Amino acid sequence: MADPRLTVIIVNWNTRELLRDCLSSLGTGDPDVPREIMVVDNASRDGSPEMVAREFPAVRLIANTENVGFARANNQAIRASRGRYILLLNSDTVVPDPGIFRDWLAFLDDRPEIGASGCRLVTADGRRWVGDAGFRPSLKTVGCYAFFLSRFFPRRCPGLFLNESRLNGALAVDWISGADLMTRRDVLEQVGLLDESLFMYAEDVEWGCRLRKHGYAVYYLPRFVIVHLVGASGKKRQTEGFSHLWLENLRRLYALLNPGQSLLWFDVIFSAGLLLRSFLYYAIYLRKGDENDRNRSRRMREYFHFLIHRRREGQ
Fold first, then answer.
1. Whole-angstrom Cα distance, residue 4 to residue 37?
2. For residue 74, pLDDT beyond 90
3. Predicted confidence (pLDDT) per residue in 238-250, tens digit
4. Beta strand pairing status for 60-64 and 217-228?
5. CA nearest 10: which of 82, 92, 98?
6. Whole-number Å distance between alpha carbons of 239 and 62
């Protein structure tokens, strides 16, 4: 059998129902895009691997006996995959139109300088999820994010996260969310796989910046849309002690990508932004009474205290 054109890789950890919806949304495939689908299960306790084996026998399943993390699990599947193109897809996503892969791959076929790309991620109610793409962590992007400059002046003041919500055409960025990251096998052979020292979170930021360093372009393609059920799988992770890991890893990447610059400025600027967001969310809660805003305020405050604690420890 000829190698598939596309390999879709989904890492799962205790998200059986979400995983079922994700796999179902991929449909039976497109004859113009021969593909394989791989699921790497990180020792789920909710019957996820059994569900995949029973309901999706065509899916290639790798069942780990321990939770090896997002980066290592994806790398497992990449090494075993056969497709020319590789799509990393979150288990908490739904693909409304599996036909997008035909046009997506055609676009990449014509642009060999593009090493990775991703589409627009939207929430269940259709709002764009800010976090589907962004820019290299630096003093400028951290400051623009912290003080909302990237929100109000996205072109002149790009921040850590892409804030362009009205884009129609492709846009060059520095990284794409690992929830929907597509790359090519020959790119991986040159740039390397995901950094397994990052158990989860920010590995997509590190890999995108590494890819840019190798001279490849990274593109955000907003005309292609995937639904991201934000927080559905993250809630499980927070109960397992992962809630601050994204900030810890972002801090680490800032130090790695900006050698010679003190982490003090990152901590001060980012902490100020978190505290400002906490106050704003609480003010919105007092006005509207929505508990979600109150929870966001509390979460920003927790992140603020986490950074202050790290600063006091001198880490």
1. 10
2. yes
3. 444 446 888 999 9
4. unpaired
5. 92
6. 25
